[in-house]
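Chapter review: from sequence to fold.
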Amino acid sequence: MRAIAIDGPAGAGKSTIARKLAGELGYIYVDTGALYRAIGYFCLSRGVDVKDETAVMGVLVGLHIELRFVDMEQRVFLNDQDVTAKIRTEAVSMAASAVSALPAVRSFLLDLQRDIAAQNNVVMDGRDIATVILPNADVKIFLTASPEERARRRYEELIGKGVSADYAAVLADLKKRDYDDSHREVAPLKPAEGAILVDTTGNELETSIKILSNIVKENLDK
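The token string follows.
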């Protein structure tokens, strides 16, 4: 099986670009962030403190998370309930960042992510794909953009969905998540050794997709 690993901070465009690349290559797209979102959502729905590792470990017991791929699209199931739409709120985003810092959560999800890559050709994106999950990926990319650019994209996405949003608040939340993700003790966000750095600041989406597509195809042919 072949694997493309794409890491980077929130709002860099990883999911959108990775999904497009997977479609071009005929690979499965795996959004690992959705797994942490699912756990964050599950904790919030039960009033569990997402920073309390002992409490979070308590809800992981008996929790079954499954990624199902329907027409090459990923759906997230918690105990056989489809929560794909429910895990895309700002509150869940912050909860996902919190639980992702917990060693118990990362350990809980490690084998699941690796098993998917062992059974499928994948484009997998997240925060530690090339550094921890798939260190031997065929292509490793670290995708980023300025905080202001990423916040603008997120703000416009929310407004486009009819969700009330404040740009300054979105930027502040994003900077906090950047700090938390890059300073956690376990699997901090950072470029993997040998990763290709791609900064999409100022790029139109199609331009970024083309850049990554060229990088991936060139490196797969080596």
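Two observations follow directly from the output. The chain has a mean pLDDT of 92. The CA atoms of residues 133 and 170 lie 29 Å apart.
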